[in-house]
Write a structure and sequence with these properties.
Blueprint lengths: L3 E7 L8 E7 L11 E3 L1 H15 L4 E7 L2 E7 L4 E7 L7 E8 H36 L18
Antiparallel strand pairs: 1-2, 2-3, 4-5, 5-6, 6-7
Helix pairs in contact: 1-2
């Protein structure tokens, strides 16, 4: 089809210190009509791992729950992979989906792993910079109630 999956990384939001979001663009819908999926770095890694397991299997099915979203991954006997945003495990009503062949999955897994590594490196750089700034001011590290200033990164 003419669907596009768009992965992007936010540094911080009000409910989580890091968000990776997935938008699905379709020829029939505008961006505002299709709800995004929000992932943490943990669920981003889980998505990559589930796709790797599916790639090595004959038939596969998995669910990934993150924030208010549920992704459903299915590999059928014809080597088609379907990634869907669904309502939940009990109500598998599809909100959006995209079907990919195995060669597309290889590329997607590679890009997801790159994004995951980018998120980890960025997180470490932000921590290092914050500690460096604290050391220059001779202050103690921040507590749980303190939050660093929001920084937005685009990948």
């Amino acid at each position: 089809g003419k669907e596009i999956l768009h992965f992007f990384y936010y540094k911080e939001s009000s409910d989580c210190p890091e968000i990776i979001a997935i938008n699905c663009f379709s020829a029939n819908n505008s961006l505002s009509e299709i709800p995004q999926v929000r992932l943490s770095s943990k669920t981003l890694r889980q998505l990559s791992n589930e796709l790797k397991l599916a790639y090595g299997s004959q038939i596969y099915e998995a669910f990934i729950e993150s924030f208010d979203s549920t992704l459903h991954i299915v590999k059928d006997e014809n080597n088609f992979f379907t990634i869907s945003k669904i309502k939940n495990k009990l109500n598998i009503s599809t909100i959006w989906d995209i079907s990919l062949r195995d060669y597309n999955i290889e590329s997607l897994i590679e890009k997801l792993d790159k994004l995951y590594n980018f998120v980890l490196k960025t997180r470490e750089k932000i921590k290092e910079e914050y500690v460096r700034q604290l050391n220059e001011k001779n202050e103690k590290p921040f507590g749980m109630s303190d939050r660093p200033k929001p920084i937005t990164y685009y990948f």
